[in-house]
Amino acid sequence: MLKLLLSRFLQGLLTLFVLITLTFFLVRAMPGSPYTEEKAIPEHILAEKKKSMGLDKPLPVQYAMYLYNLTFSQDLGPMIKKEGVQVSEIISESFPVSMMLGFASMGIALMVGIPAGVIAAVRKNSPTDFACLAFAMVGICLPSFVIGPLLAVFAGLNLRSLNVGGWNSATDWILPAITLGLINAAYLARLSRGGMLDVLSQDYIRTAKAKGVPAGKIIIRHALRGGLIPAVAFIGPAFAAMISGSFVIETIFQIPGMGQHFVNAATDREFFLIQGLVLFYGFLIVAANLLADLALIALNPRLR
Amino acid sequence: MLLRQFFITAFSVCLFSCEKESQVERATREGILLIGNSADPKSLDLQVVSGVIESNVMRALYEGLVQFHPTEDLGAPPGAALSVTPDETFTVWTVRLRPEAKWSDGAPVTAEDFRFSYERILTPSFGAKYAEMLYFLKGAEEFNKRETPDFSSVGFEVTNPHEFVLTLRGPTPFFKEILKHYTWFPVPKHQVLKFGEIDMAGNPWSRVENLVSNGPFRIKSYRRNHHIEVERNPYYWDAENVSLNGIRFLPISNSFTEARMFRDGQLHITNTAAPEVVDLMNHEAPDMLRQEPYLGTVIYRYNNNRKPLDDVRVRRALSLTIDREALCDSVFRGFEPAYGMTPPMGDYDPPHGVELNPEKAKKLMAEAGFPDGEGFPRLKLLIASRETNAALATAIQAMWREHLGIEVEIENKEWSAYMVAMQELDYDIIGGGWIGDYIDPLTFLEMWSAGNGNNRTGWASEPFGEKLKESFQANNPADRYRLLYEAEEILLNDSPATPISWWGKNYLIHPSVKGWEPLLLDNHPYTNVRLVPQPTKR
Fold this sequence. Notes:
The structure holds two protein chains of two kinds. Chain A is mainly α. Chain A is built from 13 helices and no strands. Chain B is an alpha+beta fold. Helix content of chain B is 32%, strand content 18%. The two termini of chain B are 37 Å apart. Mean pLDDT of chain B is 91; it is low at 1-18. Classes of the chains: A mainly alpha, B alpha+beta.
């Protein structure tokens, strides 16, 4: 077990290193620079700006400096367009918002998706099953930029206690969390239905039925454990994605989360912010995958 | 029983919540203006920023020597200065500061603050993006480009703590218009130097906890990507005539989100209104929709270095076949068809240099060797990926096909890549626009001079340059306008680029907002805005 953990940890470190390196060079290969603006910045000013950010140095030197600062002072670098602001500030301000929204959405996804999937599997080919499948299909096919504004218009505009946008009152997380949650619930429903169907056709379940074990007990004690494996494998990375924010949801509901930075940093060519976000997200994914692996081992004795 | 109770409670909660006052109603009562501002400002230090978003916040926090007029585009009521007086050549301007003007920490606003501010923005190692705006000052450009060693060579002289003299590079009768731009506003010397050197990039003096300003408002709170709130500045010299208690700027980037928030009673004024929203509001609540001219021009540039666009006949033919009226009717909302590069402003009406004349265009094309479009290469029309741009490009593509029998291919690029292509002249034809910085034709014409970083067409014309140069020396406003008019005629005749329409600004405004009048630069003085509670609900 310890060996497995250690190997996974080292793999994770290597993944992050490759990720940082690739990102560093890829973002700099994009056309344009952080100083590409509608109104041209005069050459002599541009030279001063680049010098103050160290962007005038050769790429390998910049890369070495970045790695050095990252390793020895955990410095993610400065914001280029927002002078005086650090990348770490941007992440530390926006991540808690995304994390809170991510947890709420995950809660909704789990509470809706897994029961729907399990019920559909148990009542295979019944109207309930078809209803669950239809729900899942709609959730998967309808993108958040359709569900979000629809919810905002129908619920937000009609109920004064719900705002269509903003992140001020305690109820402001409801609509975005439902939007984000329902989409993931749809995936979870399909995955857990599939997983459960697989398990329910196994011999040991038939044996349990033959022995007269009550249906509820069979599902909860014997089937769920194996049936949820595909869902759990999905939850890890999905969770990392949810707590790191969604550009679409944040734009639709005007939320100061981290998701918008992923897109804006790329269009603004905020080199250090892109690198910082990719590194942070990479770390979350690696960690979530590790946790998902551990959960899978706990669920499936054959993996031990 | 329990279920029934639950429903009764839920119903009453809903009923109660329906009667709760909206955020706009509450803010109106409290005198706080809620305003959509599209994005987060890059900084609260006015000398490092360069955008419209920042300008909206800066106007609340700081005050320049003169103010914006609440109802007129030209005209500059006194601000931090009691008077700004030119000599007879409009070259030497004497500024007398208001002795009672104070910073938001109570310190007096002095001539030394202005000297320090102008020195800071022009200091080469500080690298201010908008330092160019101060090149009107004699010697400023040379100092900013390290051609002279220190600020003493710049035309700025402090004569006493509340008076200074500005010497300009030439006659500038419209100088007061320039002074309205925030690059000419002061920063507090004592506070800036407390946190760093004059040229320190990212000086923390402009962080919320340290920010000191001299405008009608001071900073109250700031949460990135969430809001900026300013409150009444008790030290402001005219504080008693400021009606608002505060302003809350919301960085809402999506115009549909903004429109929904407006409809939900969360905003007094939106930053913009998408064409779809304009159509809807025209229908449902026309009194809340404003469509006003804005100081900008939608422009299509031609690459004057590439064949066949290096031939003026081809460029003119392309320009003559664009039906600007039709475009303004169907693609834009509230934009006016352009007939010159410069939108009409004050006493300046640009030459009528573009028209729809397909017959003439066909003749020109035939003369250039492309009768009925035969042999004309397939050109690329580059646009940035935004919806209106695509609709406009498609319409113009169809017009050229119909009138000239030529095919252009529309190419769509992500914004930065598109900007790079424009800067490096890596395009055939490119869509774009230009927003003026101040109310004078120069802000639309100077960019076309040879070698200007914003020209981006490869076009260079000596006669045009000469006219501009002559205008710099003209100290009679009428003569100056005539010279600029002639320069614009040369520009339009040569058609290195063609104007499509003059910009318009569409936005939504709540009826409780008073004193927000149409202004070409959209720079509303917040001191003039009042909030009046409305008797009826939405």
